[in-house]
Amino acid sequence: MKTINYNVAYHLAENKNWKTSFGVNGMKQWNENKAEEAIIPDYDLFDFGVYGVTAKTWNQTTLSGGLRYDIRSLDNKSLAGEGAERFMAFNKTFSNLSASLGATHAVSEHVSLKANVSRGFRAPNSSELSANGEHEGTNRYELGDRNLKSEVSTSIDAGIEITTNHVDISVSPYFNYISNYIFYNRLLGANGADSSINDAPAFQFSQQSARLMGVEASFDVHPHPLDWLHFENTISFVRGRFTDPVDGSSNLPLIAPASLLTELRGEFANATKVLSNFYAKVEMNAVATQNNFLQDLKRKQQQKDMCYLMPE
């Protein structure tokens, strides 16, 4: 794979507390298979995006917003394997508009509030559109779907930040609605049993609208006079659900469970004559059990019913 990224931006001079900039960026990418096995085809991809952002500050309040338009052109190449066409050639073009509007308000010297509403999109990649092969890293035979549409999200988030001489606290809840959410789905055979290809379970990319909601929070203690000591804690939690159940389950697949990252760090600006900005830390990551995972409840019920019908 070869990738060329480009970015051109122009920042206007600040005028009456207005800060404005605009530009274009994107990338050109080529992918070529040279190994004996191929999961995705050769492809050429070109991304182009144009954007503008601005921010205005009044006393203790800052209002910011932005607009962006993106277009992606994907040219998948034909590729034969074992005497048959394994990947068919096709061209796809995806485009969409993204936008955001947010505000920050300093309630006092130590407390600030923020809120943001935004709209974004993500075009499906070559793997999601055209995969046809066993992924050794996941032990899945993956199949793409060239009819996939772009994911489009609408999100709302808010937050509060408290900063003092001894403690920093931030809490940021969020909600995200995603139409055409792309995910793995287990393929079933004609008899209702799990489907496999080359002894690997078969999965295909699919789409369904989804909702994600969660919270991120941090807690940092740096007590005086021990300014060099930091006790940092970061908590993250997200709950993902389909708007309409998939095979009887509403849980999104591959959603990370709640986690707590704790770090005890000592910073020493002038430790010795040889070392400066030296630090040492101990870190612990505690991850909860994920019980809200995607499972085929309909298939499980069918298998249970079949057990009842089987003669003794």
From TrEMBL:
Keywords of this entry: Cell outer membrane, Membrane, Receptor, TonB box, Transmembrane, Transmembrane beta strand, Transport
UniProt topology in membrane: Multi-pass membrane protein
Recorded hits in Pfam families, A to Z, give: TonB_dep_Rec_b-barrel (PF00593)
The entry's localization annotation reads: Cell outer membrane
Chief place where the protein resides? membrane
TonB-dependent receptor-like beta-barrel domain boundaries: 26-253
Where along the sequence do coiled-coil regions lie?
A: none
What is the protein name for this chain? TonB-dependent receptor
